[in-house]
């Protein structure tokens, strides 16, 4: 028989030992995938971090939040607590929103007490061949919407551009 009366396979290894070994192998594979593979599927082991410039854009954020952001503030993904780097440039303008007029046309308008912003951040990240960056095991790409923390301010916005710093 393959399994004897003591529950051992070929009289040497128990079924419980095999199950425990399979769970350990699956766990090791999961850890490998989480920490040593990029979300795009390419290996990031041995790849050094690049100096990158990330520009964030928000169409409409409260003016008091935007005005509290300063050059040198740390930029973070609020939900994942991933640090992007430090703010090197700030551009603000009127907020951008779109409204429908009485005759059915959609026009650009601005909301009182709100601003649009471009925050330029310089940091380091592993950059993939397709232009995305990997930080903290998460892939970030142009167009991704995020809740962002800049210093003590929290705003919503998108990644407007990602480039290697020359």
What does this structure look like?
The chain is α+β, with helices and mostly antiparallel strands and 166 residues long. The protein has 2 domains: 1-36, no CATH class; 50-164, no CATH class. It has 2 helices and 12 strands, in the order ββαβαβββββββββ. The protein has helices at residues 15-36, 63-67, and strands at residues 8-9, 13-14, 50-62, 74-77, 82-94, 97-100, 106-109, 114-127, 133-135, 138-140, 145-150, 153-164. The strands form 3 sheets. Strands 3-8-5-4-11-12 form a 6-stranded antiparallel beta barrel. The chain has a two-stranded antiparallel sheet with strand order 1-2. The longest helix has 22 residues, at 15-36. Mean pLDDT is 86; it is low at 38-43.
Quick overview:
This protein is of the alpha+beta class and 166 residues long.
Global structural class: alpha+beta
What characterizes the major β-sheet?
Answer: 6 strands, antiparallel, barrel
Main sheet: which strands, in order across? 3-8-5-4-11-12
- What is the terminal-to-terminal distance? 68 Å
Tell me roughly what share of residues is in helical segments.
10-25%
Task: Fill in the keyword field for this structure.
single chain, 166 residues, alpha+beta, 2 domains, six-stranded antiparallel beta barrel, two-stranded antiparallel sheet, 2 helices, 16% helix, 48% strand
């Amino acid at each position: 028989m393959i399994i004897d009366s003591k529950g051992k396979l070929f009289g040497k290894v128990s079924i419980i030992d095999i199950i425990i070994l399979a769970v350990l192998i699956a766990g090791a594979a999961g850890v490998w995938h989480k920490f040593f593979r990029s979300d795009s599927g390419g290996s990031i082991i041995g790849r050094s971090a690049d100096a990158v410039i990330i520009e964030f854009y928000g169409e409409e954020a409260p003016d008091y939040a935007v005005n509290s952001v300063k050059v040198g503030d740390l930029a973070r993904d609020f939900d994942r607590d991933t640090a992007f780097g430090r703010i090197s440039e700030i551009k603000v303008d009127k907020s951008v929103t779109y409204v429908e007029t009485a005759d059915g046309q959609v026009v650009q308008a601005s909301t009182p007490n709100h601003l649009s912003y471009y925050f330029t951040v310089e940091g380091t990240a592993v950059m993939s061949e397709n232009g995305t960056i990997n930080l903290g095991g998460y892939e970030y790409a142009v167009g991704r919407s995020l809740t962002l923390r800049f210093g003590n301010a929290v705003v919503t916005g998108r990644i407007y551009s990602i480039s290697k710093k020359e």
